Each structure stands twice: as structure tokens, then as C-alpha cells.
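task queued by scheduler; priority normal; single chain, no ligands, no partner chains; default sampling; output format set to C-alpha cells
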Amino acid sequence: MKRPTAPRVPNGRVCRRTACAIGSAALLAPLLLTPLTDDDAPEQRLQVAFTDAAHDFHVPRSVLMSVSYVQTRWDAHPGSPSVAGGYGPMHLVDTSQFPAASPTPGVQGGGTLQPSAGAAGAPAARPDGVLAGRSVKPADLQRAARLTDAPAGRLRTDATANVRGGAALLAATQQQLGKPLSDNPADWWEAVERFPGTPDVSSAATYANDVFSVIRKGAHRTTAEGQEVSLPASPSVRPHTVRTEKPQHAKGTECPAEVACDWLAAPYEEIDDDGDYGNHDLADRPRDQKIEYIVIHDTEAKLSSMFQTVQDPTEASWHYSIRSSDGHVTQHVQTKDEAWHSGNQYVNARSIGIEHEGFLRQPGTWFTEQMYRTSARLVRYLAKKYDVPLDRQHIFGHDNVPSPTGDSIPDMHDDPGPFWDWRHYFDLLGAPLKATAGPNSDMVTVLPDYATHSPKFTGCLKPGAPCPKHGSSAVRMYTRPDEKAPLIQDPGRHPDGGDSTLDVDDLGARASAGQTFAVAERRGDWTAVWYQGRKAWFKNPKKQATAVGAAGKMVTPKEGLNEIPVFGRALPEEDAYPEGMEGEPEAPLPYHFRAGQRYVTEGTIDSSFVPRSAFVDSPEPVVRGDETYYQIQFDHRIAYVRANDVDVIGSAVAAGPSSAPQGGSTGN
């Protein structure tokens, strides 16, 4: 049959590379794959693919590109699916190969887990906001393959074919809705809302709002595959249809208005006749203890397993879990109470713990854009509620929590690891990590370009084996300005004197994006900072900087003190404990903070101790001391020093541009 003549699109072009025919509302006529021309630069292939697919399927390019950005930030990971079975830059899901997502507590069909009774009440029944009477399948790779007359395998491995499949699905959905293939992005809100297959109306609306936010703001990014992709901002675009339904929240949950939230209670109960109990402590925060921190974890297990763990009174607990496939949130512990999540009771007492489903060795599979976005919404909500600063001294990973004592350092956790994208995460938080001083300042903030910065790691697939190349937030610390020099040796993590390694779990010689250090020396492409009691060198070339200038305050030992102790807790002085209560012994960490060295501080923190070691009906009182400490960035982890031991000095801000390293992303 002869194909119909393709209609003109807004820029006046007609289809030249393909026939561009659009079929019925249920099915698009097959289209041929567009071959790359000799004029297309290799790093522009994805940009060209978006332009051509948008043109050929009569989808506004800004809609197609923004959907892809919210799905994957344009990363392709050719042939490697996410945990939900999503492939390519459009995250097309091959439902023939992958089972449904992890269970959702309290939602029909979500598995067999039975939530415990808890203070927040029973979990929510199936929400009224589920999209009744319509398909809620995600963007279907098999259907996209049929619509574009391409083998499904090609859509899994070829970014151009994948983009075309996504465009075909959007166009088909628009026609199914009885709407024209308009060149106006504002007409596509409902088609966008349906693209990810989110069953909850409010969550689908949040997704669509995110897509239109990207359209308005624009975005630019170098992808994991080295593709340069840009979307110009269209600030005047406003969708013609916007849903205003509020998401369903289980009774007592504490979540932002735009995030659906379930409840699955962590138990608070006695375990035996000896007084042992679990798996969290009653508190009255922030009345009895200010919440200072929000700690980011990854589960290192599937969420179904973690739901079993959090219901076990003999196990650890945390406040929230976030599912990888779609960012669904489940709360387990009230934020007023203290969860057992960080490995440091001092930090537990002052923090909220959020677990993210995933494995740090498989970031491309588990650290999905939907999980990042939901997590950022939750953290932003909690930070506002409890007045937690949106910076890396207060929003940090489990791998940044200090060990309470020296002998527990080897057992401290290392999640979410070097592949968690802190720079993007803080963009989503609305608090971008950026330079606050010129390039020659005496403080620097670590800030590599995640997509193009890919240091070598081992141990992702098997011990000692190289990890697949991947973007990273981490920079590596050397004893000399030479990549052949030994790495900084961590006497706490390797008390036997063993060397630091390239292993993905070895934090002994690493710093991470957003962490700020005092400069000790500069030499060519290298910068030395004070780190763990010595000079540590990292590569920081001007053409591809891994750090930017910073302004702020530092501490240094008072005159006359050759060395001062460093702590993993800010404990009260002995006299602060009430009569009859045994004081918690101080335990300096096995590091040196010597005269002349400097470490960056965000300010003082009060000393306190919470004697939560018994099953009680009401919270134990907090012991407060007169001793004041400074929190410092000591190495990969934060630490504390006594205020009486240090002097505070301001940075001498050097003049110069205060821009971030080139190649990063904009848009969120």
C-alpha cells in the first residue's frame, strides 16, 4: 500500500529520511531506522536521534527529550537493563523478560508481607487514585519494536532505535487519547503522564510535572556514553491539562504532599527476659534532640528482603525505604524516634536514615532517576521540616558517618559508594554544589564531572577484577602528586598497616563530591589537602578540574598544642552525667591532627549522650554537656574536635571565577 504524504511540522521540514507515516490510534505504521550520516559527529549521535525521531513521529522534540531526561538523564547503558527491565535512553521496559517491581506494603498484589501494627496505624488500602480502567504498563519495549518495525534486540542495544521506539509510543498514546499530533508541547501532558506506566494518578502527575519542568528550564549533559546533548529552555510552556489529585498517604506517614507514601512498621518490642529489645528507640525529637543530619544508604539487598529485615526486632531499622523501579516510599519509623541505622549511636540520635533499594556495585541497574527524584523530594521536605542545612556536611552517605571508636572503623559501612551521583542529587535538592571562591583559594570543594570522571575501581564483579567503566563522585588520594605513588594509608580501616586499594569498598584514600578540605599545597595539575592527619594529593587539572574553590572556616590546633585528639562522637564531659549513671568513655580515633594542619568546619555542635539501652514506655532524658565541639571534614568521613583545642580561621578567598567544572548537567 502506498504510504500517505507526511504532514509538515512546525519548522517547515518534510520527512526526507523516512516515510514518517502515522497509522491508527492503536498502531503506528512501521518506520525504517534512520542511518547516521557522515556529517553527524560521533558525540552528537544521540542529539541527532532525538531530532530525527521527533520529526519523523510528529512529537515535539522538547517533549521527547524531556521524557528521556526524566527517565534516564539520556544515559543509554546499551544492553544493560535497570532493575525494572528498562533499556536505553527512553527506559523502554521489556516486560517479557522482567517480573513486576518489588512489593508495595498495603497495596493489593504487592506480595505477601504482613505489616506489623505500629504507632502510625495500619497501612493504606489500595489507593482510590489508582488509574482505574486503563493500562498501567510501563513504556513497553516490545510494543515499541512493533510500532517501529525493528527487532526488539535492537531497541535494547541501539540508542537511536530506542529513541525512535519512545517517540512512537508517545505518538500512539496521543492518538489513543483522541488528540492531534500537535507541535505544541503543552498539548502532550496526558500522553507524558502515561508514558512510565505509573498506576497512581498523583504519581503520574508528578512525573509529568517533572517532564514539563525540564522543558521550561532546559538541560545540557554529557552522558555516560560521552554523548553531548542539549535541550534549550522553553520557559513559557505550560501544559493545558494538569491533574491536582494529592497522593495517598498511609495514616501517620511523614512525606511531602506530592509523594505517595506507605507504612510498614519497624517493631519496638522486648526480645527476651534479659531486657534485650529492638529495633529502634523511643525519642521526642526535635524537642529532646535536634535532628542535624539525613543519612543516605543503599540496601545492598532487594527491597522485599529489606522489608523482612525491618520487621525483625533483632535487626537494624531505618526511617524510610525507597524502591528503585519507581521511587515508591515506605516509612518504617516515626522521625521523632531514633532508628538504628548508621553504626554510630551519636549520629542515630541526631539523624534520619533513608535506605535506597540497590547495590553500589551495580549503579546503572539500581540507582534510577525516579529513585533519585523521589529521594530528593523526601529529603527536601525533611530538611525544611527540621531545619537541616542542604549541604554535604549534613546530608551525607552511610560511608561518611564517623566510627564511634577506633576499633569499629573496619566494620563501618561504605554505601551508597563512589557511584552515587551527589552532584545531581544536590541539583535535585535545589542546592547545587558549586564554587564559592576563586580557583586559588585556600579551601576546595571536591566536584568532578560525574559523567566524564571515571577512576578505576575493582571488585564490582569479583574480587580484584576491574569494575566496568562508570561515572563517579569520588577522587582518589595519593601520598605524592603522582598516580604511581602509593595511596594514603588509613590506619583505622587497615590497622595492620595494609595498603589502601582500588577496591570499590575501600574508603581509605577517597574523597567525594561536595566535601570541602583545606588546601595544603598545589603543584601543577595536583592539589594537596589536609586529610586524615597528612597531606593527601589528588589530580585536579585545570582543563578537567575535579575540585573548585571554596570559602568558609577552618580549625587548627591552638598555639602550644602539638597534636589534638579527633573523635567520632561529641560526648559530654564526665561531670555532665547524673549521679548513678555511668558516663560514656571518650574514645579518640587513631588519627593525628597536628599543629599547622587545618580542617574545614561548618560550625559548632553541642555535646550530648542518650542513654537508650533499655525497653521503656517513654523516651530516656538526653544528657547534655557544657563541652562544645567543631564538626570537621577529616577524611571521607566527618569527625569532631573539642572547641577548646582549636582556633577558628577564615579562608583567604582568592579572586577569580567561581564556576563549576565544565561538562556538568543543568536542569533537574
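post-processing summary
- The radius of gyration is 26 Å.
- Residues 1-36, 106-134, 654-660 have pLDDT under 50 and may be disordered.
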